[in-house]
């Protein structure tokens, strides 16, 4: 592996992130919250670390997928370190493990927090907390590819290792153009939501912070009570709409904006995703109403719709304590946490397209039992899904379950009860935010042992980078191959839109 090239690019990314640490300074000056020194010092540490890497390690060309995996994983670890500095330097979160947990939760858009009272943080630090989620939502590396040509070498490898979902759509001939288009849509939605929230009576600061975390499907709020603080059906409605939009493949938003509605309406994953939202909302509304007929059914529907949208998109906002709902609702919630949003969105989870293709594959096996000699294929819309994609999805699903069980064992071994421990792993691995009991929607992660927090930090990173990017670095074959020349890669381009439009593989089978 070309270590010098990896560390050189890591230095450039650190210098870029150090500039983002300057963004909260105007808020610090306006609110006079005493955070100026903390942000300046944190930015200097980031710039100094990045500059040192640039001086010590010259750039290299011809970076491959192995270097892409290493750069992405190391970058997220470094980003969380820099993101934690303002919390630690200011003394607002004295424990570095807690600071790192909060920063990793931000950049991975998980939304799990160790804060007991969110309002205790200075406003500029609350803004930084929201900004980390917004940057992590589309991916800081995709942002770098979009605005700077410095990652021109290896850009494709970084894009494929960074973007969530089993396949990646390309909207422009160059990967840099695709990243710019995605970020343009992302920024546009953020601005529109900010305007709509302010129209509902929310102040500028709260509107901006919640727009940043909604489009990132992050869920960090400026209030401990989350969205319930505003007590506004209008605000809840706006946030529901933008959560659901953020859970949709962003390439479909681009097609809609350019008038290509046919592609949007024909997208099978989108229809499956919306069906999940509708059915889940209906089940929870009926169950809550039957369990407590005194409550208004419209109020139950509103709460159910918000929680379903929040959890299926892995945003993690709250308006109701679902820990108090009937057991059937909790089962639905667990399923939603695992599923997540669409591929190519800012959501976490397994992704709707993978679940859909797993169903199709199971039905195919049933049909083969009845018609063993009939040639049958699986299609997603009008596109035939190649066998390697199905194998990759089965592999991902198996890896996801193994990772979940191992992490749950370790977390519960630290003394955490089984419901809290397993739900904490689910919610961090799927980048959802709240879990059940001690880490439920009205609680936080502050009381967990430090070892449990460290395991959950790993879960956040692995979930955000879709497991393979992180796990592949832990395999002996990766490091054996890292000492050999890169093998050639090839791509199969169907020249169609949709989640299965572009498949990229490699002969060393390190990329799905």
Automatic annotation (TrEMBL):
Membrane topology, from the record: Multi-pass membrane protein
Compartments, as annotated in UniProt: Cell inner membrane
Pfam family, one: TrkH
MF terms in GO: metal ion binding; potassium:chloride symporter activity
UniProt keyword list: Cell inner membrane, Cell membrane, Ion transport, Membrane, Metal-binding, Potassium, Potassium transport, Transmembrane, Transmembrane helix, Transport
Major localisation: membrane
Keyword Transmembrane set for record: yes
Example of a GO cellular component annotation carried by this entry: plasma membrane
Residues reported to bind K(+): 109-110, 218, 314-315, 431-432
InterPro entries noted in UniProt: Cat_transpt, TrkH
Residues passing through the membrane, by range: 7-27, 39-57, 69-89, 131-151, 181-205, 234-252, 272-291, 324-344, 389-411, 454-479
Classification via PANTHER family: TRK SYSTEM POTASSIUM UPTAKE PROTEIN TRKG-RELATED (PTHR32024:SF2)
Family: Belongs to the TrkH potassium transport family.
Protein name: Trk system potassium uptake protein TrkH
Naturally occurring in which organism (per UniProt): Desulfoprunum benzoelyticum
């Amino acid at each position: 592996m070309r270590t010098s090239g990896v560390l050189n690019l890591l230095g450039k990314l650190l210098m870029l992130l150090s500039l983002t640490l300057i963004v909260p300074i105007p808020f610090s000056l306006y609110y006079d919250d005493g955070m100026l020194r903390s942000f300046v010092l944190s930015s200097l540490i980031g710039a100094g670390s990045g500059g040192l890497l640039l001086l010590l390690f010259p750039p290299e060309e011809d970076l491959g997928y192995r270097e892409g995996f290493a750069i992405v994983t190391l970058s997220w670890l470094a980003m969380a370190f820099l993101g934690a500095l303002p919390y630690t330097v200011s003394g607002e979160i004295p424990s570095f493990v807690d600071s790192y947990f909060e920063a990793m939760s931000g950049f991975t858009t998980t939304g799990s927090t160790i804060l007991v009272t969110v309002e205790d943080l200075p406003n500029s630090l609350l803004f930084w907390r929201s900004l980390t989620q917004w940057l992590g939502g589309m991916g800081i590396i995709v942002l770098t590819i979009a605005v700077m040509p410095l990652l021109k070498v290896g850009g494709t490898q970084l894009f494929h290792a960074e973007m969530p979902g089993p396949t990646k759509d390309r909207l422009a001939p160059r990967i840099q153009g695709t990243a710019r288009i995605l970020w343009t849509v992302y920024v546009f939605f953020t601005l529109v939501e900010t305007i709509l929230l302010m129209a509902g009576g929310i102040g500028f600061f709260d509107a901006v912070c919640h727009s940043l975390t909604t489009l990132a499907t992050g869920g960090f709020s400026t209030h401990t009570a989350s969205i319930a603080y505003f007590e506004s059906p209008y605000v809840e409605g706006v946030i529901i709409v933008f959560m659901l939009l953020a859970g949709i493949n962003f390439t479909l938003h681009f097609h809609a904006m350019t008038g290509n509605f046919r592609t949007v309406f024909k997208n099978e994953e989108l229809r499956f995703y919306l069906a999940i939202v509708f059915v889940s909302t209906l089940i929870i509304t009926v169950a809550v109403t039957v369990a407590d007929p005194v409550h208004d059914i419209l109020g139950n529907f509103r709460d159910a719709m918000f929680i379903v949208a929040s959890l299926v998109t892995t945003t993690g906002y709250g308006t109701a304590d679902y820990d108090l709902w009937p057991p059937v609702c909790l089962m639905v919630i667990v399923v939603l946490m695992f599923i997540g949003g669409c591929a190519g969105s800012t959501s976490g989870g397994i992704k709707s397209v993978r679940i859909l293709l797993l169903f199709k594959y199971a039905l195919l096996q049933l049909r083969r039992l009845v018609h063993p000699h009939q040639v049958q294929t699986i299609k997603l819309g009008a596109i035939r899904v190649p066998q390697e994609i199905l194998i990759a999805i089965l592999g991902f699903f198996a890896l996801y379950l193994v990772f979940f069980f191992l992490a749950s064992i370790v977390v519960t071994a630290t003394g955490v009860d089984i419901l809290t421990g397993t739900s904490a792993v689910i919610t961090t691995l799927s980048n959802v935010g709240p879990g059940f009991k001690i880490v439920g929607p009205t609680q936080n992660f502050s009381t967990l042992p430090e070892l449990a927090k460290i395991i959950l930090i790993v879960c956040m990173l692995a979930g955000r980078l879709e497991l393979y990017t992180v796990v592949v670095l832990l395999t002996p074959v990766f490091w054996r191959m890292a000492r050999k020349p890169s093998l050639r890669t090839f791509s199969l381009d169907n020249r169609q839109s949709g989640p299965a439009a572009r498949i990229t593989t490699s002969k060393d089978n390190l990329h799905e």
